[in-house]
Amino acid sequence: MITNTTTIKHSNYYKKLLITTLLIVVIFTSIIIVYKSTTNNKTIPDDDYFSLDGVMYVTSEIGLKTVINNNNDTLPNTSTIIALNKDITLTETLTIPPNKNITLTSNKTTGFYKLIGAEYNNSTVLVEGGGVLWLEGIIVTHVEGVFGRGVYVDVKGKLVLSDGEISGNLGGGGVYNEGAFIMSGGVISRNTAKSGGGVFNFGVFTMSGGKITNNTVDVSGGGVTNSGVFNMSGGEISNNTAAPWHPLLTGGVGGGVDNNGGIFNMSGGIITNNTATLGGDNITFGGTLNKTGGTITKSDH
């Protein structure tokens, strides 16, 4: 039998070449995986935050604060979009500093993730002057039983609520606004305060949609206390209550809106089914009411 030794040599050569090539590919791939893993652990902790398709996903307070403080957006045209990837309980107030433009949303199929304040008598979120915060699908609240406010908007700060909730904040109300607060959607509910259960406005509050509902105060303004400018063109303020927490205490006016020395321009929306122990179930005011539209039911003023 005659064997073609040249053919055998070529066959062995190609086998060795193929095996060598595969080994090189495996080794090179392993090096890349190790390098990326090491690099990510140093710069982008997977357990704190990560970036995907232009959205920053956060899973911790550290990650949330890092992303906010590291963004270089220029107001007012761009915003850093941050999606909560789980409920986050804060150890201190989350601050939106000047010249930061932040959008908070949820990476959740059904419902919203929560941003939970834990500090007693402090706000869950503070929007400083020059800062902008867009709430587009999270719940701003407090640890159950811990007193505090939902969002504090400082002078020249701006808050925009289009979806989600500001709810369950006890003693400090939902929103305390000294800057600009724009509400086009979402819900402000189940907050309590002395006055201004849903919103206490000293700045400019513009409401075109959403609901302010089921908030409670001891003194006045179950839904809204307005001592600034309140422009309402849509939305609903309903089922809020102004009543002292103890029967021996006096108080309870303006279950829906207490226009306390402010200017209230109403061109749309509805104020209905609010209650107050001393009168003004839906509205009381000591300021200016310019009503060109909308509905106020059972008005007592």
Notes on the protein architecture:
The chain is of the alpha/beta class. It has two domains: 1-43; 47-296, Pectate Lyase C-like (3 Solenoid). 16% of the residues lie in helices and 45% in strands. The chain contains two helices and 28 strands. Strands 5, 8, 10, 12, 13, 17, 21, 24 and 27 form a nine-stranded parallel β-sheet that branches. A six-stranded parallel β-barrel has the order 11-14-18-22-19-15. A four-stranded parallel β-sheet has the order 16-20-23-26, with no helix packed on it. Strand 1 and strand 2 (55-58) form a beta hairpin. The radius of gyration is 28 Å and the shape is elongated. The termini are far apart.
How many beta-strand runs?
A: 28
CATH class of the largest domain: Mainly Beta
The separation of the N and C termini measures 117 Å
Written as H for each helix and E for each strand, in order along the chain, the element string is HEEHEEEEEEEEEEEEEEEEEEEEEEEEEE
